Fold this protein.
Amino acid sequence: MSKTPIPAPPPTMAQIRKRLDEALTNGHQPKDLVLRLTLRDASLIKRSPVFADDEIRFVDGVMHVLGVATVTGQVQESGIAAAEAAAS
């Protein structure tokens, strides 16, 4: 009998921060990226000590983290994508 695989734990705020920092360090511009967040991670990121108050801002109802726009919900795991992919 096979066992049901255990899903991987969601990324931590430190891992999300690291992924964003790496993308920006590798030459990606914040406007070319979108941070797709689960509802849980969107809630956690707002109160996480990993991100300073001035690293999170809201413009026209959209949260930006390190200058990268976020899309909340409709994903099973938070991650970074190209902005064009988010628009479709």
